[in-house]
Amino acid sequence: MTSPTEQLAEQLSATTLLRFATAGSVDDGKSTLVGRLLHDSKSVLADQLEAVEHASRSRGQETPDLALLTDGLRAEREQGITIDVAYRYFATPRRRFILADTPGHVQYTRNMVTGASTAELAVVLVDARNGVVEQTRRHAAVAALLRVPHVVLAVNKMDLVDYAEPVFAKIAEEFTAYAASLGVPEITAIPISALAGDNVVDPSANMDWYGGPTVLEHLETVPVSHDLTTCHARLPVQYVIRPQTAEHPDYRGYAGQIAAGTFRVGESVTVLPSGRTSKVSGIDLLGRSVDVAWTPQSVTLLLEDDIDVSRGDLIVPSDDAPATTQDVEATVCHVADEPLTVGQRVLLKHTTRTVKAIVKEIPSRLTLDDLSQHPEPGRLVANDIGRVKVRTAEPLALDSYAHSRRTGSFLLIDPADGTTLAAGMAGDAFAAEDEAPAVDDEGWDF
Known about the structure:
This protein is of the alpha+beta class. It folds into three domains: 12-221, 3-Layer(aba) Sandwich (Rossmann fold), CATH 3.40.50.300; 229-320, Beta Barrel (Elongation Factor Tu (Ef-tu), domain 3); 325-426, Elongation Factor Tu (Ef-tu), domain 3, CATH 2.40.30. The chain has helices at 4-13, 30-40, 46-58, 74-79, 109-116, 134-145, 165-182, 215-221; strands at residues 16-24, 86-91, 95-101, 121-127, 150-156, 187-191, 235-236, 239-241, 253-257, 262-264, 268-272, 276-285, 288-290, 292-294, 298-303, 314-317, 325-334, 340-341, 345-350, 353-367, 372-375, 379-380, 385-396, 409-413, 420-426. The strands form five sheets. Strands 7, 8, 9, 11, 12, 13, 15 and 16 form an eight-stranded antiparallel beta sheet that branches. β11 and β12 form a beta hairpin. α5 (109-116) packs parallel to α6 (134-145). It is globular and about 75 Å long. The N and C termini lie far apart (65 Å).
């Protein structure tokens, strides 16, 4: 007879995982929606609910403030706002969820980028009384920029507009048109009241004119369409294993987590940036040999030839190798308090590879309010999104972010103290074939 723990583990292993993020303007009710989801789906422990009830009473509230289930920082609770990205994990019999509750303030746009960077769905909240506002458009633009495949428009506080269908219809039409113009592939609009629980987990008796799914029903049934196993196969090498023991005198394996795609024994592969080729002679997975492995498994690849491979190299199929370049053009979201400027020396971290780089140009800054481009801004400050051109000291093998969110993304890092400066999404890499190597006055020769 299996134990309840074993039964739960078996049940969870049979469900899919959905990563999603919430976003919206200040006081639109994001944290209340998340709290309602957790509460009504029975994903809150008794002691957690008791703590929320106690905190609510101490603030003079008669009913539990479910937003406190996610607003974990003391400053958040005192101010009644969300500052940091709050991650929550919960499950239903149909699906497992990793939820990122992101801030609504304009100055925390960078936090939304963090929360939505791995999300397969974004829930954008709108206050039914205010409709689509500047921050709503901003969050829709960020979701489109990060290529989040599914966006849910949750029109909240319908109880404060007497559950009027015309109010919902007008907001849904305006947002859908705007998001579609950004290239968002799928938009679902749902009228809700997070405070009262209408259409969050259970259907609302107050909106019989709405025949669509509740928020939880949609989260449980939306297809997780971004299947990384069908993408270009990529293995960033994290560690070279050479035990050099009597039992394994010639063992040399290249360990890492498969970022995308599938690898098979006998497949011809190329190691980048060197361009050396070989064949996969074996794949070790969890202490046993397998013939095939796929993302996101952590494996050790063995190659037929004894070639030079080290941490930071990228192993790819020989017939599907990306071009290498030292010139990268990308869209970045600047996340540091200090500005990013032309000529600045940085470190560029792509998968397991970190190289020196110089910011050569900042061609434009995106104005999210109307999607216009501000040319040649000279610098990017916190929360800015713009185009940059970076020259690296060593060749990199980046995919386009449109093709792979894992191997098309990178970080720009301050070499002095390790601070993350910007999160980058590579466009088509461009190569300046005849350009002379750049040399700065501190010996960064590239």
